Protein 1
Amino acid sequence: MRLTTEQIVQSLKSADGKYAPLMINSLEQQVSMRDGCQVDAIMDCSIQNGPSFKAVVEIKTVATPQNILMGAQLLKAYVAGDKQVDQIPLLVAPYIGTKQAKILADNGISWLDLSGNMSIRVSNRIYIERTGKPNRFPDTAPIKKIFQGTSSLVSRVLLLKPKGFSSLYEMVNFINARNAKITLSTVSKVVKKLDEELLINRDNSLVSVADPEKLLERLAQGYKNSTERKKRNTYKFVIEGIEQLSDGMTVLCKDYLACGFYAAQIKGLAVTDQKMIFVKDIEQFRRKAEKKLVSVTPDVEFGNFVITETNDPGVWFNADYQITVSVVDDIELYLEMTVDTPRGPKIAEQLKRRILQKGNSDGQQAN
Amino acid sequence: MDNRLIEQLADLAESFDRIGLKPVICGGLGIYFCFHKAEGQAREMIQATTDIDLMLTEMQVLDQAKRRAIADTITDGLGYVVREGCEYYQFTKEPDRELDILSPPVEGLEVDNFRVKIVRSKLHGHITPEACFIEDGLRTVSLREFLPDSEESGGLEVQVPSPTNLLLLKLFAFNDRDEGQRLDPERTQAHAWDVYVTIMLTDREDYLEGQDFLLRHKDSEIIRIARSIVSRKFNTIEKTGWRRVLESSDFYSDHNRWDKEAMLDEARRRLIRWFDIKPGRQ
């Protein structure tokens, strides 16, 4: 349920003790300040049986970190040079989460949400902090899973090329040149969302990652929660002579990708006797293998290969294709290792350092 | 694994090395060494052990001079003393070091009261008929990586039974304690646990090696009995073998029963496949 500014104003006007001990005595909308700028509202407030104060109010219907930061900066500008000790800048939104509350605290802005949370400081006279009440106005607009599936490719390329992209077209081309398929519309939506989350720097000529480590963490969170990953099935097969699948000395092997600890071993990060591969379609993989006289036989108990069937674009994107064994790229392997306890997280740490260090201007990760 | 136990083993290996032998280690320590490179989750489940089960193989004790050399090494060289009441097949040494001697039946050596008399009044072995193929597929393990700080451990080696032999030993040990006068639920639980860990740590190469082993000895009574134990006691997860594992509070304590049964079923399928038990055969 997304509220309008007017609905928020009405809710404040009819609060009727809802924010006790804070009382909203009156609210005047669209008030012009002395310097000519217009604020959303001025509220006359007081503490029950206590002192009163005025609040210069900025209302945000959607409290993304970016909106909150902008609102905080506006409020700071409104009250700059204001010597009135009983007047405070106050941001109001349907719900203000922890991250947003921190942004406001860092900027010295008081806040109040319609879910019943608030942090209000009036010089040294009044301090109210009430947090922990759940969001009564969850946004019902579909949440874009920007760190999963095709959408995740945008964050991945921003990590691959931390210097940034001069246009969204460049980003689309960069992704599509690396064994993936993404549209300008998807890139545009994801970039907008990343911008709102303050994860990227964006100006007219450049889109680049703001904090690579944070972005990688968000990707890992998305990977952990991915329903596609959770519903993947793995099968054990006996495969003898898988290297015969290679087409010779020049053609890259694109039938399967080494993953998990097998990929970590190929990348020199682990030692393992487990062989795990991704294929897009097991039956097609078997047919192709059998044509080359490579037998692929199901063996649940003692198979020497664990095969996972997936079309997840993140898996196949930017893979390190080789003539013999091709492997997933460092970012995909990092994500796999973060959830492969107990040994995986240690390898993930090594990969993390590598990813954050090796993203370079042409974006090709050294796998 | 307790470092003191590994040091005790290194002393044993060093002394055996002087008489041209490698000690063959069974029990929990044998499982630990056999699968020291395995990666399965069950690796963390290998039970800690406090004693060394030393199997004296037929080849090691056929020759009288070798038998005496082994006895002298254990008692005089290493200073083990016989445990009272378990004369000549269980030894101790201060502080808290234990050594149990096992032996398959060896032609020409007297067997009396479950003991193979290797050197009369000095060294016996607890008779272990199921170890009759113990020399088949022995694996050699260097102690170097277990005692990285010890210079002496560099060239020292021990031997451990193949996975099939480990399974045979554990299946018979389980059966021995699961019925009759020697019934002991606590010991059966420990043996069933070892069966679970062993079968879960095997890989395809172990399996193929095991199939060759079983084919070579397909007419053996020992293999027939082992198959019968698997059929009667490990054929479904309702059977005592797997139930004993399930009863253990340490078995995947953070998982629910459904998950635990699924894990046991995986072990069950591997075990009945290993011993070629047909579905429904009891």
Protein 2
Amino acid sequence: MPVALSQSYYMLVRQARNLLREPIWIALLLIQPMVWLLLYSQLFKRVTELGGFGTSSYVDFFLPGVVVMNAFFAGTWAGMSMVTDLDRGVIERFLATPARRSSLVSSQLMRAALQAAIQGLILLVVGYAIGARVAAGLLGWLVILGTAMLVAAGFAGVSHGVALLTRKEATMIAVANFIGLPLMFLSTILIARAVIPGWMQTGSKFNPVDWGVRAARGPALPGTDWASVAGHLGLLTAFVAATGAFATWAFRAYQRTL
Amino acid sequence: MDAIAVEGLRKRYGQVQALDGVTFRVREGEVYGLLGPNGAGKSTTTRVCVTLTRPDEGRASVAGHDVVREAKQVRGAIGYIPQASGVDREATARENLTLQGRVQGLRGPVLTGRVDELLETFGLADAADRQVRGYSGGMKRRLDVALGLVHRPRVLFLDEPTTGLDPEARAAMWEELEHLAGRENLTILLTTHYLEEADRLADRLAIVSRGRVVVEGTAEELKRELRGEAVNVELADGRIDDARSAVAALDAVLETTVDGRTLRARVENGGRAVPGILSTLDGEGIPIASVTLARPSLDDVYLHFTGRDFRTEDGGA
């Protein structure tokens, strides 16, 4: 294995171990998306009567949206662990070793992706239990989870960039809240594109959260447009590359302040 | 060959000139102490040497490699024990050591063997598989040192290794470090604001003040540079400030420092100065518990070369 890859792997093992050692966090972080999934899907059950949802089952429509929403929030908060590592001197300790700088950033993004995948799987299982079905079956589940990983990694890049530039938890919380709700509502997580105002439809085209919703919802509903799914997965991959580059640039900026 | 060669280092952070031309050399196998109060520039100097901080000006080479141009080679040759620990508190000691070994290029049985050996050496074998966040301060600090040693570095940087430890843990750490210092081929750069620590551990030391090395030598050499003797007067009551101002006014007294109830006066000749000091205190009506004469300590050396009282500059700590 090339050094850069093996180091990212060891750093990811550390991240994953710390994540799985506190399974309570995975559960606590799931409370909110669970409430959305279990209550909101019932509350808005009849909204599909408006038409344009591509299905009459709102929970079928909503489930991939919830998985993406959860991944989005997992990503926006991911930088908190970087702030902790910076505060505790963990990053500096590694910087004085031959550890690859890129592995310090990439392992953090991969951890966010892993968290989103684990939580996404739990949401899919619970969704299945309450009757939600994914039209494309197993392949559909894999596409939804893969999408969740890209969304989480992409926003983790933003979050880590901010973490490295500000190094303050308070700023992190402000940024997460500032982008959290607007990007969520400027997407089709909750409702079909056909029934939202035109300017919001336009806005959602530039929203990576909505790219994720479109990639994940495609295989969840009948009549999947695979070209559109692939296109949006491609956009998300570019988004991950761009925010990963931003986080890496922020890491260099942080190093220059030392 | 010098294990560490630092020349004319300058570094400015905003309005603060952290380093203002630091220069010193450390021979291979030597324990070298950088002594000075917080903010003197010790940590910044260390951070330049371990490739964390780029100097604005000047050069540093460690283990034969330039810290800026050959940072990678330097990082493989050094162990760095930062002031702010840097252990992963959610992981166990074994996991911390294993990851550190991996990024330093160790693999397989060599790595597991080395980790076991360090856990044993630093008295962490019983706690090896517990999360570090439950460790005592002393255990955490021993793990920090073990982390720095995992790849058998040639040069070890210890940034304030005992700051924040209780006296018992500090004494235990000093024993560990003395043991390390005895190893051949291991060069140690130690920063400290404890005079006692520098006196005990360092072969040679430099006193750092305001971003510069103000004096350098063995502890003995530095003490010898100070003429005269120290008169230590322990007071029976607490009027230490009155006592200090009265004694400082005497011609025979060169400098005064205060340590709790003890007034320390540096004088040319102890035998001649003591009667004057005693009669002055008597005249002020300040009762005395004891008087001793001593060769100057590093406290006196510090005061002499920086013109400042070590303790007050350090915020009374």
